[in-house]
Amino acid sequence: MSPLIVGIITALVSATFGTVSSLIVYQVKFSQEEERYRERKIERWEDEALQELESARQILIDITARRPHNLSSSEYDDIPPDEVAQQESSPKFDRIDGHINRIEELIGRMPDKHDNLGYYFTEISRQYRGTPASDIDQSQYDRWKNIRSFVTNAKEELEENKQSD
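The structure corresponding to this sequence follows.
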């Protein structure tokens, strides 16, 4: 073989290996960056969820501790808590409505990693928006305590998940 042909073959082989190795390095770096992006996205979701749950929990503690008129009156037992919140002229009821709305938004963006929280988040929404089943004799006050309990449980579960990472 002539030195020219050997040189061309060597150049082609070298270029092929160089291109393949560059592509492999690029793919590895891209995969690592993609994984870091997913992790940051999950961390942002966790931080936002913890903030909303803690804010909602604090307001619910205040609401249930003071036991406003609408929570004590049996005439309100057949309506959902969100309607009670709209009827109350208190800023804390406006704030709790906003926090529940944001918790409901978080359900749609919940990372697969936190599927176990879906039950709590869905139950918070259901308890807040829904009317009690006809066979359940539950006061409005008890319903608010249930919501507080689900918010607290969701927050604790999320904190445990975050610590176990």
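The longest helix spans residues 3-66.
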